[in-house]
Fold:
Amino acid sequence: MRARIRGTEIYFDVDGAELVPDGDNMVERPALFLLHGGPGGDHAGFKGSSAALRDMAQIVYVDHRGCGRSSTGDPADYTLDNNVDDLDALRDHLGLERISVLGSSYGGMVALGYALRYPERLANLVLVCTAPSFRFMDDARRHVEQHGTPDQIRVCRRLWDGAFESLDQLREFYELMGPMYSTNFKPEEFETGWTRGRRSSVALNRGFGDFLRTFDFTERLHEIRCPTLVLAAAHDWICAPRHSQIIADRIPRAHLKVFANSGHMLSSDENAAYLQAVRGFLTYAAK
Structure:
């Protein structure tokens, strides 16, 4: 499905009912928007890791502008600010007063921006392997320089410079970095995941070459008042768990859970525990 909003066309998909029978009544489930990473990723990975949450929420998958199956346009418009405002425009398009948001990696940065700009529209917030500021990049760069192979260091230079020239280069990056992204990385399964997704080197370059170098929500985190679950991974190379700790320390109603056996791909590395944590949070937050 597509929504024409704010001068672009955003792809979204909905899984699960809004109203479900409960005895003599119809009970409303929360609308849970899932925001993917990148920038330049898409929603496809969530359909493997998070679709089971449909048993307690109406899931809304979203591709950011210029990403996945959403329309392309002027790369200058691929910004964190536009991703935040697009999310609220999509909420309005769907006729929803308040929503819950789960953002992973870059999607968590968008979710933080949404929580700060549209607090009255946000019921609950789940942040997975993300960071509140540009400082995550320096930590990630040091980690690769200290622990990476020569090939991993080489392909990461394209990331830091925002200089991917083709999808082939982007594929090489994700394949070589796979063992850092996931504690359960399986080279033989990489092709399936790559084929299912649609990735944009343009959007990724726009983020790492520009606005991700300066964004900073740190000093405003205390303004977020909704119930918040922060999930971090002990072996996360790009959004180190200390950044999740900063988020949890500064948001008044936040709870932090660190997954000991996961990398950045937490939702797939420890999927059962991830689903349990999110379900438990949504159940608690609904009370």
Remarks:
- Residues 16 and 58 are 5 Å apart (CA to CA).
- Residues 2-134+216-285 form a domain with the Rossmann fold fold (CATH 3.40.50.1820).
